[in-house]
């Protein structure tokens, strides 16, 4: 089967759905290809900081989530070896809706998907290869799917995750292993819990923590300096839970272990923490003609600053803004103009994303590696005392989408 589409987005994760929604807001229709049979819900939950809430407000869906998830005012970081606890305040925007909140990943995806026109997402569609051809002086991306479908796209946006087919086609280096792995999950308390703040614990190369989602659910994680074990442990959630309690977090306080014991086994995941070298993002090919990437396909990073999903939402708004501006300025989007818009998008995003990658890696290194006096000084005095609030601009404003006069249609085709 052969298809012709204006904009094709590969991947129905946070970046893919948010980008499709941003394009819808500026009057550009898109098709989202998702290899799974339904929306992917792995990852359990994530913390969204003010920069993410600004992007969600631009996309018009922030209120659907802030009404469910309470804001997080502060966090506590405890050094298990010394027993010292530090308090960290999240100093984002004064507007309450922009305060950090932990949200279900599934709920975020469903909220974004509900805003898209019917038929926007095509499930069970795995991209196998990409080629390009020139038609009337403009580049066309030809996508080959595993089921034999061929799609010609005037714009291709890869939002297909850490192991992105589109990023590899552009020539970006594969992400590398950080030397750490993480377990994530949700703890469920049918009778409710009393956790109000974020709690983190560090102990000789291990860092764990938890944050409340709702009054009955808590998101928790633990990261350690070892690769995933072989033998199918990734597919055995009960073994993952047991290993955390008996090994990784055996020296953690009882309140943390109690959260792990309340884990909903179906939400547990064990995965290596991957990242892209920031210089590859700065100097590499992040777009070519009418093809670019967003989200983890562009900037995979470790979760130590909680900015992976936040940055993906920023990408979506910035990309929608640059493509929307073409429509606003010319009343149409000619394929020959797309490359310039994608170049402006990547120029705006590459330094921001590279900084987040570097900041996340440094954050994980400082918090987890070593327990000597030097590491303690770097972690407690320099990082938590000074750099934590400055290493990432959690109040970053990704801008607004262009507003169109009534004469411009709501779903414009690319000429």
Automatic annotation (TrEMBL):
All copies of domain FAD-binding, residue ranges: 6-357
Record keywords, A-Z: Monooxygenase, Oxidoreductase
InterPro entries, A to Z: FAD-bd, FAD/NAD-bd_sf, MOase
SUPFAM superfamilies reported in the protein's UniProt record: FAD/NAD(P)-binding domain
Keyword Ribosomal protein (UniProt): no
Domain of life: Eukaryota
Nucleus is among the record's keywords: no
GO molecular function: FAD binding; monooxygenase activity
Family: Belongs to the 3-hydroxybenzoate 6-hydroxylase family.
Alphabetical list of PANTHER family matching this protein: FAD/NAD(P)-BINDING OXIDOREDUCTASE FAMILY PROTEIN, OS04G0423100 PROTEIN
Protein name: Uncharacterized protein LOC104599917
Source organism of this protein record: Nelumbo nucifera
Lineage of the species this protein comes from: Eukaryota, Viridiplantae, Streptophyta, Embryophyta, Tracheophyta
């Amino acid at each position: 089967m052969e298809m012709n589409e204006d904009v094709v987005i590969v991947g129905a994760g946070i970046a893919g759905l948010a980008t499709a929604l941003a394009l819808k807001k500026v009057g550009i229709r898109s098709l989202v290809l998702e290899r799974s049979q339904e929306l992917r819900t792995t990852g359990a939950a994530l913390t969204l900081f003010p920069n993410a809430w600004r992007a969600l407000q631009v996309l018009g869906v922030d209120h659907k989530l802030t009404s469910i998830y309470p804001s997080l005012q502060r966090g506590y970081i405890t050094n298990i070896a010394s027993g010292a606890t530090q308090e960290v305040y999240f100093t984002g925007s004064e507007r309450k809706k922009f305060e950090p909140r932990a949200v279900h990943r599934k709920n975020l995806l469903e909220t974004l998907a509900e805003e898209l026109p019917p038929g926007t997402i095509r499930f069970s569609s795995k991209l196998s290869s990409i080629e390009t051809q020139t038609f009337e002086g403009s580049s066309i991306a030809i996508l080959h799917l595993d089921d034999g479908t061929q799609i010609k796209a005037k714009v291709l946006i890869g939002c297909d995750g850490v192991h992105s087919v589109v990023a590899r086609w552009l020539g970006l280096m594969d992400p590398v292993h950080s030397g750490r792995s993480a377990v994530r999950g949700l703890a469920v308390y049918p009778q409710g819990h009393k956790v109000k703040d974020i709690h983190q614990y560090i102990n000789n190369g291990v860092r764990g923590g938890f944050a409340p989602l709702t009054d009955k659910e808590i998101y928790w994680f633990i990261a350690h300096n070892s690769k995933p074990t072989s033998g199918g442990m990734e597919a055995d959630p009960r073994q993952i839970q047991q290993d955390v309690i008996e090994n990784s977090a055996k020296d953690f306080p009882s309140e943390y272990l109690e959260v792990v014991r309340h884990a909903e086994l179906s939400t547990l995941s064990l995965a290596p923490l991957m990242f892209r070298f920031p210089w590859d993002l700065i100097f590499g090919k992040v777009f070519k003609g009418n093809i670019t990437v967003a989200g983890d396909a562009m900037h995979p990073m470790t979760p130590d600053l909680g900015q992976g999903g936040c940055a993906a939402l920023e990408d979506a708004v910035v990309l929608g803004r640059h493509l929307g501006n073409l429509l606003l300025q010319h009343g149409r989007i000619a394929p020959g103009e797309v490359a310039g818009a994608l170049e402006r998008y990547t120029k705006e995003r590459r330094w921001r994303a590279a900084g987040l990658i570097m900041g996340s890696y440094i954050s994980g290194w400082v918090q987890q590696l070593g327990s000597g006096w030097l590491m303690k000084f770097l972690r407690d005095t320099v990082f938590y005392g000074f750099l934590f609030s400055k290493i990432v601009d959690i109040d970053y404003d990704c801008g607004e989408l262009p507003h169109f006069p009534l004469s411009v249609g709501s779903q414009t085709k690319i000429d």
